[in-house]
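Milestone 3.1: sequence recovery, worked example.
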């Protein structure tokens, strides 16, 4: 009932008090076109695992199941404010703006690419009243004219924001499973909001590969170093 009330309140507020841009306070949406451009103009260009410079998101020092990861930017400033409001303050309308960031940051993808959101645990969905990753993935798929394919499900109730790197990897390894056999000729794009140690996306990618996928890419909104992490569950 609380989540239904939150959704109704958001709808009413959206009509009475239009959203202000988090970057410049312009009326209209949580991120105006100029502020989206400012975020995209400073993309994260390092390895998500060790920060070495690379144009694929993963440097040659690491063997990982996904081929490429695109990261819009570091989790700081305006981008951090929008993500936090979306996840922790019930700003559901920010999903469209965040999906637009991904749309503008990613290159063209094959038309048969399937969009796969990294599953959110049930307790977080109940708290927010929506699955934040699924909602972003839906908007992104719509913007690109691609098919949403939520073929992963969460099978763990654990949260990772209070544990270290090794424990994250251990938890993530048993956190997901594929719900069906996948095509070896279809590219799959995993979408998540934040990458910290890379354990979540690695585990999700592994499950896609085990289910038959041969090409897995990843797209995330922001990279957050583990040593400065704060409340990003």
């Amino acid at each position: 009932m609380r989540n239904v009330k939150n959704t109704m309140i958001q709808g009413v507020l959206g009509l009475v008090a239009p959203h202000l841009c988090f970057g410049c306070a312009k009326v209209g949406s949580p991120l105006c076109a100029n502020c989206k451009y400012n975020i995209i103009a400073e993309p994260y260009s390092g390895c998500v695992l060790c920060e070495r410079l690379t144009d694929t998101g993963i440097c040659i020092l690491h063997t990982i199941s996904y081929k490429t990861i695109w990261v819009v930017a570091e989790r700081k400033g305006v981008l951090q404010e929008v993500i936090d409001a979306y996840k922790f303050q019930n700003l559901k309308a920010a999903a469209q703006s965040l999906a637009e960031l991904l749309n503008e940051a990613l290159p063209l993808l094959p038309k048969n690419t399937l969009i796969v959101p990294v599953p959110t645990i049930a307790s977080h969905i109940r708290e927010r009243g929506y699955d934040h990753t699924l909602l972003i993935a839906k908007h992104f798929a719509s913007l690109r004219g691609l098919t949403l394919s939520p073929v992963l499900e969460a099978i763990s109730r654990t949260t990772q924001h209070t544990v270290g790197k090794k424990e994250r990897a251990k938890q993530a390894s048993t956190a997901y499973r594929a719900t069906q056999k996948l095509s070896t000729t279809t590219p799959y794009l995993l979408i998540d909001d934040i990458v910290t140690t890379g354990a979540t996306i690695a585990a999700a990618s592994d499950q896609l590969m085990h289910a038959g996928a041969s090409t897995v890419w990843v797209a995330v909104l922001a990279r957050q170093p583990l040593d400065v992490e704060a409340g990003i569950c």
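The two ends are 23 Å apart (CA to CA). The chain has one domain: 44-228.
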